[in-house]
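Worked problem 6 (solution included).
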Amino acid sequence: MDYFSRKKSSSGKYYYINEITGETQWGFNTYFKTKKRLPKGWIRLNLDGKSIYKYILGKKVLTCFYSYSPKSHEEILKMTYEQLIHEEEKEEACRRQNLFEKVSRLLKHTPESICDESLQYLSTKTNVPVEEIIAYIEETELATKANLSVFSKIKKSDIHFLSERSIRELCGVNIREAEASKAMGEIDEELSCYIGGTIFKDPVMCSSGHTYERAAIER
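Solution. The predicted structure is:
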């Protein structure tokens, strides 16, 4: 991941510095080769000769290695984490992942160790009041201009979000369904006959150690 920092010139106009190469450039508020303005908060910069679109996060401009024309910010926020990855809307995916990691640092635990735990459980586990965790998430979201965040939508619509929603789901990085789907696919593959591709009904093991459906291997 590569970052640009934003600085104000003596004329009051912002310019951007590539923190890896040290190169500076002015940003553009329009799409490439058009006069159509970008959604609020977005900027177009040049990276290795290509136009890239970035979302400004406070004083930082978060960069992912890809190039695409963003949809409206409201549309991006409504997408699930899996869709963000699939559609290459990675600025928003990075923002959500960063939020999740910041909350884990607040709780002094690794993201992996808390990903499936609820706010209520985490509060007891870490001795951090629920109210403090919620306030931290909301302040962080506000600082990144994510007023339509996944967390705010869940909080408004689910009265049981404290005890029944996992922290990564509240941060918008819930990948439980994707993981379950992948696991089921692997199970199906393990329980399927290599010859016929169907789930075993009458499996037999050959002297080679491989298992097949009886009718298929006999045929």
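Discussion: The longest strand covers residues 50-57.
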